[in-house]
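Kindly go through one protein, given below as sequence and tokens. The question is how this chain folds according to its tokens.

***
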Amino acid sequence: MFSHFQYETIKNNWVAKEWKFSFFYKGVHCEGTYSGEGQVKWLHAPKEDIEQVEAHVHDLMLYHEFEEHNPNSQ
């Protein structure tokens, strides 16, 4: 799947949130932005499987930004 997935907040205000992300997919460097509404905009898109890749980006962003992952909270 992906290797070296990373993301960084580029906009975080009461109107909108936005992140930039990058990763390698099948040896190709891919890069884009992800909006708080779930929209992916590509700067460097993968050469194939774009729908599957976008779904995976969406899942990763939901996991990292929108789900609670504190094992000590009860």
